[in-house]
Amino acid sequence: MDKGLDATPMDQLSGIPVVRSVRAVREMVRRWRRCGETVALVPTMGALHDGHLALVRGARQAADRVCVSIFVNPAQFAPHEDLATYPRDEAGDAARLAAIGCDLIYAPTAGEMYPPAFSTTVSVSGLTEGLCGAVRPHFFRGVATVVSKLLIQVGPDVAMFGEKDYQQLKVVERLSRDLDLGVRILPIQTVREPDGLAMSSRNAYLKGNERAVAPLLHATLQGAADEAAADQEHSAFRTIADGAVARLLAAGFDRVDYFELRAAEDLAPMERLDRPARLLAAAWLGRTRLIDNIPASVAIRG
Ligand code: AMP
Q1: Which of 9, 157, 173, 292 has the fewest CB atoms below 10 angstroms from its CB?
Q2: Cα(14) to centroid of ligand 1, in Å?
Q3: Is-above-0.90 flag for pTM?
Q4: Does residue 293 have its Cβ closer than 6 Å to ligand 1?
């Protein structure tokens, strides 16, 4: 077994070293850097699926060493949300990571991340105010704070984030630029089930018929994007969105938090599809909230 800090044996899972403190993760990264190696960080909340693994594969291509963090961040859950029931499977996660190659798992405790009297937060204005930020006001402050901390703790050259959480990706790009964190943020395309459902750790919550209805979120986004692209008049997107929301509700979704067209770069609201855009939606199926998004662009006519 590899000798860790202070010559104490280092924990391993499926042969991957596991560290749980800021000091230990920094020491590992320092060793790599001494050998001239570059480092990629893949931040996750665990319960890893093929979407996460796509980030890890991207990380392996982007840097010599890959560190995957696993931390279910209490600061991004509101009291009524699913922190207690969020799926956790560290041993399973390690086995999946070992199969594709990972150099280090960083799984800090909540106490390590938020020591007593912790009182500094990161909030990104503008970008976080609509979409998921409108319905989960606590969420992006929790995400921005923990991602800033992880990037500062590990100090990677690159960090991978999924387009699945597109608003989060934009928030992370912005904070790393604004705070001069010196890390390249690399986006990875959404990985989907064969029926189109975006992979998510929360898909495990879907019960019975909900799983059959869930792919309609992606299909409806795609349908709306096609409709908008085909509309030579660039008429108001609101009409298309209203139709899409009605179809989701008729198909069995219980509530639609938003179904919106936004500018791809800065998420500015768009009334019509007249420049590169992103179409984003969040909707509830029973007690599960699904989010998804796709690119939308004006059809190029020959
Ligand atoms: P999470 O564990 O849900 O916090 O996600 C960790 C990272 O994996 C985030 O950057 C997510 O955007 C990304 N991710 C989650 N699901 C997918 C997916 N289906 N495809 C690509 N990336 C994903």
Answers
A1: 9
A2: 22
A3: yes
A4: no
